[in-house]
Amino acid sequence: MNRIKAGIIGPGNIGTDLMYKVFRSKYLEMGMMAGVVESEGIKRAASMGVKTSVDGASAIVREKDIKIVFEATSAAAHLKNAPLLREAGQTAIDLTPAAVGPYCVPCVNLNDLSGEPNINMVTCGGQATIPIVYAVSRVAGASYAEIVACISSKSAGPGTRANMDEFTETTSKAIEVVGGADSGKAIIVLNPADPPLMMTNTIIVRVKDKSVPPDTITESVGRMVAGVRQYVPGYKLRVPPMIDGDKVTVIIEVQGQGDFLPPYSGNLDIINAAAVAAAEKLAADMLDGSGGEAL
User: Each residue of 159-207: pLDDT tens digit?
Assistant: First the structure.
C-alpha cells in the first residue's frame, strides 16, 4: 500500500526513536532525517538507508514529496522553522513546547484538528496526564487539576532540561485547553534513582459535581486508559481513582516500548508514540483523499 513520506528535524535520541517508530508504521515512510551537524544520529539514519542532511529545516522543505514533518529540536528552533514548513505546504508535528499550533492529545482531540498545518504535542507529561484530566472533567467537571510528572533523571536529556520552564507553562495551559479544567498546574520531578524508575504521573482533579457516582468517574478513567494504550502499550493505571469529597487522585505509569530508548524512558516514548499516532491519522486522511486505504 502507498505511504506518506515523513521528515524528522533533530537526529538526537527523540528523533532516532521517532525514526524507528516510523519504520514500523503502515502509513508513513521515512523521507529524510535532518540535523545541523554530522552527528551520530545522522550517521545512524544514513546507515539504515534513510536520506540525510545537515542543512536542517532548509533541506526538509526542499523535499517536495515529504508531506509531514516531525520537529524534534527545541522550542526556539521550531519558532524559526514553523513558517518555512508552512510555506512549503508541509504539516508540522511539533514535539517541542513552542506551541505554534493547537495542542494535540490524540485520544482526546485529534479528530478535531483535521486540516491544521501545525499541531503541538504538548509535553511528555501532558500526553500522560491530560487524558486522565479530561476523563474526569467530561463526567464531573474540573475546577482545578494538578499533575506531577516524575521521570528518571537519565531520560532527561539536554532538550528536556533546557525547556523546563516551557514544560510547566505549556502543560499547565493544555490541562485547561484540552483537559477541560478551569485552572491547571504542572510540576516535573527528575528522579536520580539508579536503577532508573519508570515514569510515574500523579493527577489530582477537583471536580465541580460531587454528586457524580464514583463508579462513573472510575469507568470514564478506565475507558480513557484503554484508549491511550491503543498507541502507547506501556501506559497503565498504577493506582485507580481515589475519591475523597471533591478530590480525585489517579496515578499512571508509563513504560517505553524500547524501540531505541530504554524502557524506563516512558516520558520520551509517550510523546513520540502520540506524535506518530497523530501523523498516521493525517497520513491516512491524505491517502483516503487520493483513493488510498484509511485508518
Answer: 678 777 778 999 999 999 999 999 999 999 999 999 999 999 999 999 9
My answer on whether 110 and 130 are in the same domain is no
Q: Terminal CA-to-CA distance of the chain, rounded, Å?
A: 13
Q: What is the pLDDT of residue 114?
A: 87
- Residue 258 belongs to domain with CATH number: 3.30.360.10
For residues 67 and 145, membership in a common domain is answered with no
Instruction: State the pTM of this model.
Output: 0.94
255 grid coordinates: 513504560
Neighbours of 16 (CB within 10 A): 25
Count other Cβ atoms within 10 Å, centred on residue 223: 12
| Angle subtended by helix axes 13-23 and 40-47, to nearest 10 | 20
Instruction: Examine the residue annotation and report whether 124 is marked as an active-site residue of this protein.
Output: yes
User: Burial, 261: exposed, middle or buried (Cβ in 10 Å; 0-12, 13-18, 19+)?
Assistant: buried
Same domain for 8 and 97, yes or no, is yes
Query: Is 294 contained in some domain?
Result: no
- Separation between Cα atoms, residue 191 and residue 262, nearest integer Å: 16
The dihedrals phi and psi of 156, each to the nearest 5 degrees, come to -100, 95
Catalytic residue selected from 104, 107, 124, 150: 124
Task: Give me the domain span that covers residue 142.
Answer: 124-262
